[in-house]
Design brief:
alpha/beta; TIM Barrel; 12 helices; 21 strands; 26% strand; binds ligand LLP
């Protein structure tokens, strides 16, 4: 396994002499032009990631529906549209964003346990590909709305297969205690009573096991369970959506299976057991996670007899993952320093002890005010989970394409 930083950055982010670059542009130039904190994304890295996932799953040629919640910046949605991706959405707001970015509605799948009537209507009116349904009450609601609009609505039933996954408790979505999907018994009941739902076209099934999964094994476990169940009830789905969740490297030394292994193992099983079924996958993090960085400046270094704190201008309102999941993001200095490294707690300016970006990180001893710090692997669930907490404006987002720099969202102005 690779043990250097390239496992995170490939060659789209790198040190050139002593400064850090995104494609052909120095991070320092962007920080000077747009201020900090700023999210920076590498357009060609995003395209490269889509290529990787297409290649890995080539044997089954799935419809790749990018999970918009990971990063919903319209420019990123447009890049993925150009790469022929569809979209996985979870709200009326995300449907609207996709339509504005000219995504074809027949490539949009819509999941979520709490779709409101107006959101369902917006999906129906725009003719999206499919609703992934999660409860009997939702099924009844969609059926009624379908009747009102005189349409047969294409749906997949989201199944909760009670699969254990090796990930943070908050992002496990396929244990039977979680709110997601139907238990097997209810699927049997619904499919045996299809005539109760005359305005629903039961096209297929959906599952999403969890996020940041390190190996393909839970997918195979789920597919095996599903196959046994479907053989029993004699239902051949036209479509099968196996969700997202493919893990990425946050730590250099982390053991995350290569996407080609995910792709090969899952494809092998599907080619034997789901020959006639169109497969959909919904990757979010895999596509954008490592393709973005959060760039911040040191406000004050604060050394005490007990701890060294690096107080930076990005906080938990810009990146909540460390505070919420205790998640790890690699942190480096923009300038390749020669000074000795010491342990720092990298913290934000927000009035909560949970406002940290990284604890006990080895960074140069001589870091001072205005020095630039880079928080890696923040392209997914970074900006999209940001807030105005503590009266802080949401930050700028910048896209780099070789030499070109484009602001893709202006810094908020809280006046
Ligand atoms: N499909 C469904 C139905 C989902 O709920 C999700 C993510 C995805 C696809 C995409 O999963 P991905 O490929 O990105 O793992 N905020 C958390 C992650 C929450 C994921 C929610 N659902 C984090 O920062 O780790």
């Amino acid at each position: 396994m690779e043990t250097n930083i390239e496992v995170i950055f490939k060659n789209f982010f790198y040190y050139k002499k002593e400064h850090f670059f995104v494609e052909d542009v120095s991070v320092k130039t962007i920080a000077e032009k747009f201020g900090t904190p700023v999210y920076i994304y590498s357009k060609n890295y995003i395209i490269d990631r889509v290529g990787e996932i297409k290649n890995a799953f080539k044997p089954i040629n799935p419809l790749i529906c990018y999970s918009v919640k990971a990063n919903s910046n319209p420019e990123i949605i447009k890049i993925l549209n150009n790469e022929n991706c569809g979209m996985d959405v979870v709200s009326g707001g995300e449907i609207l964003k996709c339509l504005k970015a000219k995504i074809k509605p027949e490539k949009i799948v819509y999941a979520g346990v709490g779709k409101k009537e107006e959101e369902i209507i917006s999906g129906i009116k725009s003719n999206i590909l499919m609703f992934n349904i999660e409860s009997i009450a939702e099924l009844q609601t969609i059926n009624l709305i379908g009747k009102k609009y005189n349409k047969k609505i294409s749906c997949a039933l989201r199944i909760n297969l009670d699969i254990e996954t090796d990930t943070h408790h908050y992002t496990k979505t396929s244990k039977k205690e979680t709110k997601f999907g139907f238990p097997i018994e209810q699927i049997t009941y619904i499919l045996n009573n299809k005539n109760h739902y005359k305005n629903i076209n039961f096209k297929g099934l959906h599952f999403h096991l969890g996020s940041q999964l390190k190996t393909h094994t839970p997918y195979i476990e789920a597919l095996k369970k599903l196959k046994i169940f479907l053989d029993k009830i004699k239902f051949i789905p036209e479509t099968l959506d196996i969700g997202g969740g493919f893990g990425i490297h946050y730590k250099i030394e982390e053991n995350i299976e290569d996407i080609n292994i995910f792709g090969r193992k899952i494809s092998e099983f599907i080619l034997v057991n789901f020959k006639k079924t169109q497969i959909i996958i919904e990757p979010g993090r895999f596509i954008v996670g490592n393709t973005g960085i959060l760039v911040s400046k040191v406000i004050y270094p604060k050394k005490t007899p007990h701890k060294n704190f690096l107080i930076i201008d990005a906080g938990m309102n810009d990146l909540i993952r460390p505070a919420l999941y205790n998640s790890y993001h690699h942190i480096i200095s923009e300038k390749k320093e020669n000074s000795e490294n010491i342990l720092w707690d990298v913290v934000g300016p927000i009035c909560e002890t949970g406002d940290f970006l990284g604890k006990d990180r080895l960074l140069p001893e001589n870091l001072k005010s205005k020095d630039i710090i880079i928080i890696a692997s923040t392209g997914a669930y970074g900006f999209s989970m940001s807030s105005n907490y503590n009266g802080r404006p949401r930050c700028e987002e910048v896209l780099v394409d070789k030499k070109s720099i484009k602001s893709i969202r202006k810094r908020e102005n809280l006046t």
